[in-house]
Design a protein that fits this description.
558 residues; eight-stranded mixed beta sheet; disordered N terminus
């Protein structure tokens, strides 16, 4: 497995690695082609154990198989739950051979009484350790077999008798939780979205690529705050076509992803790639696509996430320049699809320009994804740093309209010694914490996708109820235009009626005025009435199908 450059594991600055030579000189031993590549440098018996654990011989170890096999370690269930969470890196609900090797090494460490964590899991390669002791495999004795939680079911009364309604989608029909969400969307949500023009009022249609997309982090900030230098620090090297300088140098949106070789891809090609989730960007026009590109390079971090570098937000006279596309709208498009948004400042650029304000306001609804990075914090002494930090908090509280601002990482995220080292220990810890948080994103990515899917189902349900209520108030033959105008002008009355009739939370409803504007150009008579069966199908997605997927592909140890 190819390894790329990555930040040092203790959070300090990353160093370029150089190929190491064997002290005994070139090896003349013939390679063992029967040894799986995914096994890496792990003991050969791990492969035999993997085949032993894989009872159904489908090439992966599922939750039920893992519970049966891991129980042989005699470790407590909470420890095995942590082992699974650290091994199932992509949250697929199954372990391939590489994941299984990681789990065996973590079990070995746990049996030796050593702590296991995400940082430990990332640094297992190349370390020598004992094989775990497993009852019935390399150890005699007895062990207590652990059990899995039963699949969720919904209680239903039929002819006075309580019965259980199970999820309709069989676990054999899907290969991962993301795949299950994609199939639920295609079968139940997409037809309703098309019927009630959901994409016009809310979000565009989703594609399978959107569900399977890697986790992503977006960097935002004014020019020359060190966004591209920050990415270079994280990856250990500049990505292809990166330009670093004091003036606005990154004039494009660049998606940086993993590859074994360095290469660049033009935005037009990236936007039409069937295996990429960027086709929706074509709506921003050719001028934007000319300022969009992809860059690929080897990096351990890019194995886990994609990074989106953005043009520097303009300030002063530069704000008058016409980019040729709606910059805040493009930022929002990416924000909807990223897992983390880093707003980067430095001590000399704390002012928030008008364009930056528009960008931040366009992040409304994604506040939980936003984090702040105060970069180049070592370039001012401790007294001035306190003033800078306070000024930044005050500015952000006015923009976010909240008494609490997002988490702030303070440090210098680039190579070199600190200029002022009074807070060197603090900045080292902040570096380490940020890198740890970035590596942990894949572990929360699936939970985020489930959360976004559930929000979309609820939003679609309310949208359908609103459209259905509007349709019910339309006349069957004459006076349709006048009635439509009246319904549009009194849209708040329809909102209130739907809210009270269905006992819905007011906060779940869409913004009134944008909905009204879209409704003006829509034929209300084209909607159809929402049937009880369709509402029931949406409810069962939330109550049965999604919980069943989470159970099937979640942590089998609880």
């Amino acid at each position: 497995m190819a390894k790329g450059r990555s930040p040092s594991k203790n959070g300090e600055g990353s160093k370029k690695s150089t190929p190491s030579k064997s002290p005994s000189g070139p090896s003349t031993k013939k390679p063992n082609y029967a040894r799986p590549v995914q096994l890496g440098d792990a003991p050969a018996e791990f492969y035999n154990w993997f085949k032993e654990a894989d009872k159904d011989k489908d090439g992966v170890v599922n939750g039920e198989e893992a519970v049966a096999f891991f129980s042989r370690s005699r470790l407590p269930q909470p420890t095995l739950a942590k082992v699974w969470a650290l091994s199932d890196r992509q949250r697929r609900g199954v372990l391939d051979l590489e994941d299984f090797v990681t789990s065996m090494r973590l079990i070995s460490l746990a049996q030796d009484g050593k702590p296991i964590s995400s940082e430990v899991a990332r640094t297992l390669d190349g370390k020598s350790m004992d094989v775990p002791q497993l009852v019935g495999i390399n150890l005699s004795g007895d062990f207590e077999a652990l059990g899995m939680k039963p699949s969720p079911a919904k209680s239903k009364k039929t002819l006075g008798v309580n019965t259980s309604v199970m999820a309709k989608m069989s676990s054999k029909q899907v290969g991962s939780l993301q795949d299950g969400l994609s199939k639920l969307y295609s079968k139940y949500l997409r037809p309703l979205e098309e019927k009630y023009q959901f994409q016009t009022f809310h979000s565009p249609f989703m594609r399978p690529q959107d569900f399977a997309a890697k986790p992503a982090v977006m960097m935002l900030g004014q020019y020359s705050v060190g966004k591209t230098s920050f990415i270079k620090y994280l990856l250990g090297d500049e990505y292809p076509s990166a330009v670093i300088g004091p003036e606005p140098t990154t004039d494009r949106f660049v998606v940086v992803s993993h590859s074994d070789i360095n290469k660049s891809t033009p935005g037009n090609a990236l936007a039409v790639s069937a295996d990429k989730p960027y086709t929706g960007l074509t709506k921003f026009g050719q001028k934007f696509l000319n300022k969009f590109a992809g860059a690929e390079m080897p990096s351990n971090l890019l194995n886990a996430i994609d990074i989106i570098d953005t043009p520097g937000v303009l300030s002063g006279e530069k704000q008058r320049l016409d980019r040729g596309y709606e910059f805040p709208e493009v930022v929002r498009w990416f924000a909807e699809r990223t897992d983390l948004i880093l707003l980067i400042f430095d001590p000399y650029k704390l002012d928030i320009s008008d364009e930056f304000k528009r960008v931040i306001h366009n992040l409304a609804g994604f506040d939980d994804k936003v984090r702040i990075v105060l970069n180049k914090a070592d370039q001012v002494d401790s007294q001035h740093l306190m003033k800078v930090y306070g000024a930044l908090m005050w500015s952000l509280s006015r923009i976010f309209k909240s008494p609490e601002v997002p988490r702030v990482y303070t440090g210098n995220f680039q190579e070199g010694e600190y200029v002022y080292d009074e807070f060197a220990d603090l900045m080292d810890r902040e570096r380490k914490q940020l890198i740890t948080d970035l590596y942990d994103i894949p572990r929360t990515n699936v939970a985020r996708k489930v959360s976004e899917f559930v929000k979309r189902v609820r939003s679609l349900r309310i949208h359908c109820l609103i459209c259905s209520a509007l349709k019910e108030d339309m006349p069957s033959m004459f006076g349709k235009d006048n009635k439509q105008n009246k319904l549009v002008n009194r849209l708040e009355e329809t909102f209130l009626k739907v809210q009270q009739k269905n006992n819905l939370a007011v906060g779940d409803f869409p913004a009134l005025e944008p909905f009204r504007e879209q409704l003006k150009s829509t034929k209300i008579d084209s909607f159809s009435k929402m049937t009880a069966d369709k509402l029931k199908a949406l409810d069962e997605i939330l109550e049965l199908e999604v919980p069943a997927l989470m159970q099937r592909f979640g942590n089998p140890f609880g």
